[in-house]
Amino acid sequence: MRRILIALSLVLALASVSGPARASDFMDMDICLGKQVLGRILCKDPQEINYVAKVKDNIYLFSVFYAKQEARFVVGISNNKIRVQGKEFLKLTRTIPYDFDKASKCGVVEYSSSECTRTDPIVCCSEKTDEDVKEEKFWDRPIPDLLEEDLKKALEVLPPEGGQPVQGQPQKGQDASPAK
Questions:
Q1: Average pLDDT of 153-161?
Q2: Cβ proximity of 36 and 48 under 8 Å
Q3: Which pLDDT band holds residue 61 (cuts at 50, 70, 90)?
Q4: How many angstroms separate the CA atoms of 124 and 98, rounded?
Q5: Which of 36, 147, 152, 165 is 20 to 30 Å from 19 at the Cα level?
Q6: pLDDT on residue 133
């Protein structure tokens, strides 16, 4: 009996230590998804929805003028779900699945509301980091330019072949100083 109680207490301790699953690490994408989904639920233009604050990790507060007054909504973004909950007068709660593409760092939501005529998918992408921009610039160049750059780098590293000097290096037996 004692072993069972110890095992049960260990399981409960581990369950309480491990926090909720992390959603995305892209706050800008989460805010975009929150605005777009709220816009779709309320059939409003997402630009009318204001981001107010970050409540906790991946939980955001939004406000919008709705039904003759200011309404606040809490939007939580998890690994594969968006949860919207209304505050104050409008007790609105929705749980909406979404897909996150790690390669493009974009979230895609397939959601339509009966009140709203828009049915196209909602797509929000995270801003690109400096590293992403450098990589994109690298691959946007023509392949012959990439190959030529690699060839130049390889030739700079290789020693001269057959006594032929690499550009800027003196030949064997010659003085490096200019002739007078």
A1: 79
A2: no
A3: very high
A4: 11
A5: 36
A6: 60
